[in-house]
Amino acid sequence: MDVNESWEGFAQRMQRLNPLFELGRGMEVGELKPHIQTILMQVLLTIFYRELNDDDLRRKSDIKYMVEDSIKQMKLLADDKQIERITSGLLYQGKEEYSKPFEALYYDEIRQSWETQVFRYVTMDELYTNLEMGGSIVYKLTDVAQEMIFMSREMAEEFSITIEQLYSMQLIKNGNFRKATRNLDHLISRVNRLMANEFSFQKEMINNPKILLIEEEWQRADNRVEIEKQFEEEKNHFRTITSMIEKTKRRNEEDDYIQKELILLQEKIGHTRQLHDRFAKLVIQNISYEMKLKAENPSLFWENSLVSFREHFYENWLMKEGVSSFTVIEKMISPLFSPKNEFILPLDWIWGEQELNEKQVTDAVIEEEPEESITRLRVTNWDSVIKAWSYVFQFLQTNGEFSLTDLKELPLEVQDLWFEESETIDLWMMFDKKPLKVQVLHRKEETLTDEREILLYKLMKEYPQFEMFEGLKIYTMFDHWAEPFLWYQMKITPFKICVEENK
Amino acid sequence: MNAETIKKASAVYFTLLKEKVIDENSEHFQTYFDPEVRQTVLLLADESGTYIIEAPKRIHLVVQPTGSVFATNFTHLKDKHKQVETKKHFHLISIIIMSFLAAIDRNQAAKIRTKREGISYYALERQVNDLIIKWESILKNQPTFGEEERIDMKEVVTSWKYMEVDSDDFGLKKGNRRTRIGLIAGAMRLLETEGLIVILDRDDIAKVIPKNELFERIEYLYHDYDRYELFKKLMTSEEDEHAENPSN
């Protein structure tokens, strides 16, 4: 017998086994190490069945629960860190931050070289991941992981006849016969694989017709040759094997056992035939899709670009030469963006909201204690105002800017300060008027007319460290990304107060 | 050009201005492809410094590289970073966007994969870092360039190098532009607002999934040979200009 037989299809075998070998490898999970593969297999099965049952609880957080659950079920113990590690270890190889796929080596007997196989166990399920709203990725099993699941039971069950068959063939002791049946097995598994390929090709073709042209094109041509070969082989094998079976049948007419085996074998041939018929139908269907797509989208043929951003702009220019002026980069990027249509002046907006808020606030106050609120409105308690604002200026001093949204982040007792005096909040609106050049330090308080100047004057008197603002320009900036936010029944459009150094 | 055409064309143009992109389901999509209307819209676009991308199923309106009468989210961002200290951050954001575009600009098969798996902020951080390291070696190997000339690049390289990747303090993680990941988040938010990407797993390890709209913009803006020539001219003239006018 040919020794090289053991090498036949070796690379493919290894590629099928590698995901099994790699499952859970290299994880630092301490005493859980011997159990890790069992745990992960159970997790894969859980994902698989959820997928079958249209259950979308397959986010990373759900997978974490699956891990936790499996561990509990298996009467093992794990802490959060281990659970976290096992979860990310199913999703990525190595550090989670880089989200890298798994890699494994295999020996390619035809090329006579070591090759790297890249695979993942789970991938994004586009059907369930909400791409419009953001949110979290819903995972599904990859083909690789599916195969592992089938390999572990379904396939064995499916092929159980085959394995027994192979043994009984040895009993029949017909070398040729055995080879023929083995070829039949090959035929089945190949037709299954081709069919899977054809299916995924169909899916991708519908999702993205362009694959008909780029790169995949030659793979497709390859596939075509393989398909034709498959049909040719099918024809030959069926002919020889049926005649062989007939011959053996006649020769062993009195042996019941062999007769039974042969009937099983015939059934298997029937099954293979059916598979081939299904496959043929699929191939023809795909060809007709392809024709239709090409007829309807002729542009697919001539859209082939000469320049690539990655190669020409990034690698050959930006990486190799660097830049001396960043305006070039700005010019490169800016056409990615659409013009912005400013339909509302931020200032009007703010005033509009302010009117509305005042109504809300005063209404509430009047209902409760009307007299007091009137007197309070007349006399401004500057101490409270200054205290509240000192926090803002502290931020300005260190960061150069302060956004209204940050008010929410202040300690609660500081937030309370903001509501002691209505003036405190009104001052915000004053800052949005026009930029203020701070010149108050050497003036008399009575000469100050601008409320903001009064505030700054008082702030500097109270907290000398704020004297550094003298001579600087304070202006506001409207953040166009920001949404109005709610802060104690007030709807506020966030803007920022900024400090500009004097030039 | 009659009044009716102008009316139709401006309806299309102003819808584009409002929506950025219109797709084949919009009533304006069909109107646009009336030859006269299209001519007028293109004229309007050109006069306002904008450019129209005609993808198979969508029409986009974007600004021209030489500037437009309109502001964009990008120019707003630039205005925000006028101070010297934060200008560097703006430059870094621009570089991050460039690196991101390069990362997703690949052949079709890889594109499908990127669309499915996305690019994590950390993977992008590695990509930007590669570029910065390259630049650092350029700066080292060409001492003749001296202090004056490549000053922008040098600043950017130094500030990136001394920047933490991520802050340990989880609470401050959001929008902290003093870390690399914070800056990347800012850059990606910009593209997200523009409707070009989707950000998934934001609270965990955020991943960016490019949308078809982005692939279309890359293809029409950077894969076209004439436009490449245009950009090249811009690059070279810009560098000359820079020598005369360092305040630019």
How would you describe this protein?
The complex is a heterodimer of chains A (503) and B (248). Chain A is of the alpha+beta class and 503 residues long. Chain A has helices at 10-22, 36-52, 60-73, 80-91, 143-172, 175-207, 216-251, 256-296, 299-302, 309-321, 326-333, 346-368, 370-378, 382-399, 412-417, 422-431, 451-462, and strands at 102-108, 113-119, 122-124, 139-141, 401-403, 436-437, 473-478, 485-487, 490-492, 495-500. Chain A has a 4-stranded antiparallel β-sheet with strand order 5-10-7-6. A two-stranded antiparallel sheet of chain A has the order 1-2. In chain A, strands 3-4 form a two-stranded antiparallel ribbon. In chain A, strand 8 (485-487) and strand 9 (490-492) form a beta hairpin. Helix content of chain B is 63%, strand content 10%. In chain B, strands 1-3-2 form a 3-stranded antiparallel β-sheet, sandwiched between helices. Residues 170-175 and 242-248 of chain B have low confidence and may be disordered. With 248 residues, chain B is mainly α. In chain B, helix 1 packs across helix 3. Chain B is built from 12 helices and 6 strands. Chain B has helices at residues 3-19, 27-32, 35-47, 73-80, 84-104, 108-117, 121-141, 146-149, 151-161, 180-193, 212-222, 225-244, and strands spanning 21-23, 50-54, 58-63, 119-120, 197-200, 207-210. The interface between A and B is large, with 71 and 93 residues.
In short:
Chain A is an alpha+beta fold and 503 residues long.
- Classify the secondary structure makeup of chain A into a structural class: alpha+beta
Gap from first CA to last CA of chain B: 41 Å
* Quaternary class: heterodimer
Strand content of chain B: 5-15%
Estimated helix fraction of chain B: 55-70%
Q: What is the number of E strands of chain A? A: 10
Gyration radius over CA of chain B:
20 Å
Structural class of chain B, please?
A: mainly alpha
If interface size is counted as residues with C-beta under 8 Å from the partner's C-beta, which chains form the largest one?
Answer: A-B, 71 and 93 residues
Shape descriptor of chain B reads: globular
Tally of strands of chain B: 6
SSE ordering of chain A = HHHHEEEEHHHHHHHHHHEHHEHEEEE
Q: Number of DSSP helices of chain A?
A: 17
End-to-end separation of chain A in angstroms reads 91 Å
Roughly how much helix do the residues of chain A carry, as a percent range?
55-70%
Question: Runs of chain A with pLDDT <50, length 5+?
Answer: 160-175, 344-350, 352-378
**What is the average per-residue confidence, as pLDDT of chain B, rounded to a whole number?**
82
Poorly predicted ranges of chain B (pLDDT <50, ≥5 residues)?
170-175, 242-248
